Amino acid sequence: MASPTTITARLDNGLTVVLRELHRVPVVSCWVWYRVGSRNEPPGLTGISHWVEHMLFKGTPRFPPGSIFREVNRWGGTLNGFTWIDYTAYFETLPNTAVRLALEIESDRMQHAAFDPAEVERERTVILAEREGNENQPPYFLREEVLAAAFRAHPYGQPVIGHRADLLSITRDELYRHYLTFYTPNNATLVLVGDFDVEQMLRSVEDRFGRIPAGPEPPAVRAREPEQWGERRVTVRRPAPTPVLLMAWHAPPAASSDAPALVVLDTVLSGAKPVSFGGGGMGRSSRLYRALVSSGLCSSAASSFALTIDPYLFTVSATLTPTADPGQVEAIVERELARVREEPVPADELARAIRQLRAQFAAWEEAVDALLDELESVTPDELLRVANTYFVPERRTVGWLEPAGATLGAAPPAELLAVRPHFLVDPGPEPVIYPRVSLTIRQDRLANGLTLLGHHDPTSEVAAVVLRLPAGAARDGDRPGTAYLTGQMLTHGTEARSFDALNEELDALGAALSVSVGRDAVDVSATCLRDDLPRIVELLAEVALRPTFPEDELERVRAQALTALRQALNSTRAQADYTLRSLLYPPGHPYHHRVLGSEERLREMTREELVEFHWRYYRPDRAYLAVAGGVPVEEAWRLIEAAFAGWEPGKAPELAIPPVEPPPRRIRRQETLPGKSQADIALGLPTVPRRHPDYETLRLANIVLGRLGMMGRLGASVRERLGLAYYASSTLEAGLGPGLWMAYAGVNPVNIERAIEQIIAEVIRLREEPVDQRELSDARTYLLGGLPLGLETSGAIASLALDLAFYDLGMDYIDRLPDLIGSIGAEQIQEVARRYLDPERMAIAVAGPEAPAGEASPAPVA
């Protein structure tokens, strides 16, 4: 197998270009990175880089407002932009037939962004709403305070999104001046990876970007953080479900020779992190996980070391369970840091960390050989040296979030405290030509009834295997939370090994094994390097078929589930979602309750109940197992058959999921959560199962309404035209039973009624006016052009295969989909909107702070 071709070039205007051929799927991803972030912002202009990022989606003479998202989506592509402390980046991922569009967008907005004053003012409201959404998460305040305390001189201590006072005062001219200063080719790097010829692509890049004039060198960041001579402490008191700890030590930049050792040390402490967006971390055998999470003291614990231009931070964070003692947790963190200062990391533990890093890079499907070589050369002595250099009390800032108030606010897992990037045309006569996708998925069935699915990609270095069982929360009956606890307990001890022993073996392989419990099904998933598939299949079978549900582990998992429930109860987004579902699905319906269950049931659940649930529902007859990646299908199936041969035949009891009628009239319920800045609204109606003949038509209707372009018609009106929300969109869920259509938005409390009215108005318009042919065409290509993007990883292919089998769509579904979608017309979309999206029978849920003074809150309606 030939190695992918990679070239790096520098154009005469200073633009750095990196091109990499990768012919796994007919897709190209185009990224432009500008070296500008919150690091480049003077006092009084915090958040200006992030605001400029927003404005580059707001139009040029070539691409008017809204057209960039629309044009990429009509090819089935995805795009976004994000700002961090060191950089701002933009990307488009498209079928390879549309790569020209990505080059046109990025070369055009590198020099022609308009910064229309009216658009600036609309975006001011949107960005303020985005900040308010961040403020709804209590740890956000903790992170801001810890950063501000850790940095007294360097702009790394400023929030990427900016201080509210600055966001209220920044002007259009200041934004435009920032853009002209930093958005120059000599301050940018263009990266393209995918299905193309590098020499031809370089010529295309030179044609699009080569004539853009270079700009002057951007001003240097002169601030240098002075030495910290004493520990700093901050305490934030906010409504929150549990205490949260965030500790930070000053750390070196990416260019430091100490950086590779700190990456490895981060892995030793809390496992290897995903290299790119998405994916899952490893490290359940890591030191912080075993000391804090396995012990039951915390629901999550993590460390983080970011690669930065200037010296930044190494952090450790933890989200405590409700009964944990904060002093004990902090003492344990100090003990673990003392261990890495005083004791060499054992050779087997170091090898395990390196293996995890190699596996994460392999899953990323990209070559970073130089960095991997540096990581693999790190020695125990180097780890000791860097730990003693940086993990000293005098260089530490300690922050605590202490719950305050009678009602608790939302706290995400501690991993989210690691500072990450801040996310966020006239087509002409040329028709959209998306590549046809052909995916061969083989199918077989074992004697015990287990259905096997397989796909081989000889170019992949990894393998993914997923077991799906119809044992989700819909099976709970009158015992909500049983399916969830059963699934979570699978990895906490088997007949052959304990929870710790299982995690040590997985981490030694650089593999990940997880369990996901949904409403319809449970997925037991594993990813590994392809050579390790034999062992991973054995471990997956052991976890799924032979768990022992030990009592001590049950108590720890119970505490973690209760913590997760408290977080959900006090998250405006989660509470609006649950309230809407509870209004639409009546009590007793399998979809009425939370997947997590209720606090009462979680507290009283016994081991015997979990054992019985596992025995009853973890049966092979309606189970599916998919494998994809770099292992030939026949070889993978032989491994699976050997590992699952002992699974005795048997059928789980039938599950009838009854249909649901929408409410006879519009109903509404409001939930008040203290300590919040923003409200979440959700409007919805029950719809159809996944296999229903109307599903695809309803899906196109939803794409027009709340997905296409900048979140469809809802985003265009609620976000773009009126500036009421940072996000406004809609979604269509469908499974074995009646699905759910839901529109949602996050708004300032004063804008709740106006946003609801506008969403309903757009639904009425969809019912009363046929969509125009341009929207219909774009919705079709949004679906069809996006197919290759969903097949970029072995895990994604395995998940798709499971969906096709589990929902009985047929293995030829992808081949049939273009004709099916092409046969749906505007009249059919209008018809399904009238049939299923009745605004007079909607349920409306609002979760957020108390209504502003002078506004009456609508009374709850059951």
From TrEMBL:
<dbReference type="InterPro" id="IPR050361">
    <property type="entry name" value="MPP/UQCRC_Complex"/>
</dbReference>
<feature type="domain" description="Peptidase M16 N-terminal">
    <location>
        <begin position="17"/>
        <end position="162"/>
    </location>
</feature>
<feature type="domain" description="Peptidase M16 N-terminal">
    <location>
        <begin position="455"/>
        <end position="565"/>
    </location>
</feature>
<feature type="domain" description="Peptidase M16 C-terminal">
    <location>
        <begin position="605"/>
        <end position="781"/>
    </location>
</feature>
<feature type="coiled-coil region">
    <location>
        <begin position="347"/>
        <end position="374"/>
    </location>
</feature>
<feature type="domain" description="Peptidase M16 C-terminal">
    <location>
        <begin position="169"/>
        <end position="357"/>
    </location>
</feature>
<protein>
    <submittedName>
        <fullName>Insulinase family protein</fullName>
    </submittedName>
</protein>
<comment type="similarity">
    <text>Belongs to the peptidase M16 family.</text>
</comment>
<keyword id="KW-0175">Coiled coil</keyword>
<dbReference type="InterPro" id="IPR011765">
    <property type="entry name" value="Pept_M16_N"/>
</dbReference>
<dbReference type="Pfam" id="PF00675">
    <property type="entry name" value="Peptidase_M16"/>
</dbReference>
<dbReference type="InterPro" id="IPR011249">
    <property type="entry name" value="Metalloenz_LuxS/M16"/>
</dbReference>
<dbReference type="InterPro" id="IPR007863">
    <property type="entry name" value="Peptidase_M16_C"/>
</dbReference>
<dbReference type="GO" id="GO:0046872">
    <property type="term" value="F:metal ion binding"/>
</dbReference>
<dbReference type="Pfam" id="PF05193">
    <property type="entry name" value="Peptidase_M16_C"/>
</dbReference>
